[in-house]
């Protein structure tokens, strides 16, 4: 991961909750610069930091926001949506059976097959690589001699965001660093 001194392409803006914590680590909560400017004018956010670049209108010149904080707190106590992406994030983008981390080869796997009454839910779906999913087929892991690294469960938003900290984006702007915490070493 790189820490950039100049504005990244497209001037993304880091969005913080009213408590100055990121709304999301994975994906990192950012807005396009246009959305940030719109929310500044709608008085929904406070500008915390800006890029050196400016945008102009016929009657106004404004520095492009690099970090904004919402004026109203958004509660993070709901459960995350059940999506393929969130299942993969929960499982660390690894196959729960063999540990392979080939993101392009990850699939959904029903621990209890649907043909045997298994449903599509947090508690029955895991991330599996295509070879393990094919090997398991329409059987349970124990019938094939496979052992999952962990049992599937519905994560809280806190657990999913904590997991997301393990996967920092390819770049961060210098102005964002005071508001982010990553579980890995950052390099400039």
UniProtKB/TrEMBL annotation:
Keyword Hydrolase: yes
Coiled coil: none
InterPro entries on file: HNH_5, HNH_nuc, NA-targeting_endonuclease
Example GO molecular function: endonuclease activity
Family matches, as Gene3D superfamilies: 1.10.30.50
Superkingdom of the organism of origin: Bacteria
Record protein name field: HNH endonuclease
Start and end residues of each HNH nuclease domain: 82-134
Native species: Hyphobacterium vulgare
């Amino acid at each position: 991961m790189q820490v950039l001194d100049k504005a990244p392409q497209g001037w993304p803006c880091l969005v913080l909750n009213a408590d100055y914590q990121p709304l999301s680590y994975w994906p990192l909560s950012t807005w396009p610069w246009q959305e940030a400017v719109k929310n500044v004018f709608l008085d929904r956010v406070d500008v915390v930091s800006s890029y050196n670049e400016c945008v102009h209108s016929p009657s106004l010149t404004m520095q492009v926001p690099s970090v904004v904080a919402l004026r109203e707190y958004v509660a993070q106590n709901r459960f995350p949506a059940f999506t393929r992406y969130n299942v993969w994030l929960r499982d660390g983008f690894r196959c729960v059976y063999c540990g392979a981390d080939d993101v392009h080869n990850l699939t959904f796997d029903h621990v209890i097959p649907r043909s045997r009454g298994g449903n599509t839910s947090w508690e029955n779906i895991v991330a599996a690589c295509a070879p393990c999913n094919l090997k398991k087929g329409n059987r349970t892991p124990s019938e094939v001699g496979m052992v999952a690294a962990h049992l599937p469960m519905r994560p809280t938003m806190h657990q999913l965001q904590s997991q997301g900290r393990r996967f920092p984006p390819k770049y961060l702007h210098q102005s964002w660093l005071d508001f982010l915490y990553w579980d890995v070493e950052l390099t400039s």
